[in-house]
Amino acid sequence: MLIGASLIGQVLAFLRTKLVNANFPAIGPESTDAYFAAFKIPDFFFFTLAAGALGVAFMPFLAERLAKNDRKAIWELSNSLLNLLAIIMFGVGIIILIFAEPLIHYVVAPNMTPEQLHNASTIMRLIAFNPFLFTLSGILTSVQQTFGRFFFFAVAPLIYSGSIIVSIYVFQDSLGLIGLGVGALIGAILQLLFCLLGFFGMKYKYHARINWRNNDFRQILKQLPPRSIDQGIDSINSIVETNFARRLGEGKLSYYENAFILHTAPTLLIGTTISTAAFPRLTDRLAAGRSDLFRKEFLEILRVIIWLILPVAVICYFARGYLARMIFANDAPQIAVIFGFFVGAIIFRTIYALVSRWFYAQKDTRTPLFVSLFAIALNVFLAYKLSKAYDVPGLAMAQSIVAAAEVAILFFVMVIRDRKLLDMNFLNGMFKIISVTGFTVLTAFLMISILPLESSDRGFITLGTKLAAITAVTLFVHVAMSALFALEETKPIIRRIQKFILMPVKIQ
């Protein structure tokens, strides 16, 4: 369900960006640079102050209370966190509302024209309270996930993207680019209302108070700063890269953001989705004292994630021209070049989504924080140096290098803490997966040679048909060779195919 909803969500996000590009220019008074820049500060505050408390720093404590069937403690803990973060994020909204223009001008996107600055600051003011609304939605869905309800968590983001898409057509003639901010605000409100429906039948009891004496609540607050800073670091990186991209010239911020959006899709679809679905179960294993099952299931999930992301990354690299032209018909070559250097980040950010949860499940938020602090320093340095040398593609190069370094360091720490983690079964499986990926690379190269991107190729049907053919053949070879190498990851797929083919049909 999560993967299906996430896939639809990524398609909507892709469509949203494509429609924004199609209806607004990258250069000029209505430049999409203003649209992309407006979301950076609200996203920073949400991820730094709120997202750190959601899920990984919050759900392990709920899982422990649920294991004891203590719903009263769950409601009390949830209410305390919800009320505290609601107060903080409402204050953040007021700050964004007041200081939107200087934040855009001095921090996010310098060198904007007066019209672009007006559009960016107006959109930022419209979405100033979106972090507040997202925080409420996030806490509500985190509680629901603890009880095994993933539907509302999975579907809620679709409402947000859909609202922005609708706003393009509703407000384009009257409000122009600013209408996108109106759509984002309406989407955040509708998303919250939808999340509230997830508590139907759970007998949730809300109380407008903060229980500072609750020991679990105090423990969450202790865990929160490292996790919040860790989350905020990614947003700081995004702001820094936005600033650098804007300084390189008008429109280049939009090109970079389009490539960045393309690269986040597989990471969210595979890494974040699978890790989110697995996290409650991993925390349950530790809560029950079964570290052996925690290790076993973690490695199984990690292998699946790597097996899935490698062929996707291969397709992204070889078919980058198709993807760039689909999301942005004009200036697609620039986006394709940038996206090509994001492939390393696609692989390692996907792996990081699960690896970081290995620490969070053990209530260790400090180790990922310290590694992230190193990562941001390295990323800022590399982004500055490589963007000077290679223009905007240098920013993508920095992302890939830093993502690989971050995962390598965390793996090193994991192996030190758990000597039994990387057993021979896992290492043999990884050797087979990498060997299979060699055939996948060869297949993708041959398919691109057979179906090259022509200058006349335009439109979703033409581009989509070729891309679908390249993807289908490449994935088929990946699965077929995986089966030939007897990889465990293919067994569920083969069983389902066999069941479908051999399923008896009743004749009336």
Structure in words:
The protein is mainly alpha-helical. The chain has a domain at 1-236. 80% of the residues lie in helices and 0% in strands. The protein is globular. It starts with a helix and ends in a 6-residue tail after the last helix. 51% of the residues are buried. The mean pLDDT is 87.
Strand count, sense and barrel status of the largest sheet are: none
Number of helices: 20
What would the principal axes of the Cα set say about the shape? globular
Distance between the termini: 34 Å
Going by helix content, strand content and strand pairing, the class is mainly alpha
Keyword list:
mainly alpha, globular
Map the helices and strands:
Blueprint: H1 2-23, H2 32-38, H3 40-51, H4 59-67, H5 71-108, H6 114-126, H7 130-146, H8 151-171, H9 179-196, H10 215-247, H11 252-287, H12 291-318, H13 320-327, H14 332-340, H15 343-361, H16 366-390, H17 393-417, H18 424-450, H19 460-484, H20 491-502
Summarize the structure.
The chain is mainly α. 80% of the residues lie in helices and 0% in strands. The protein has a domain at 1-236.
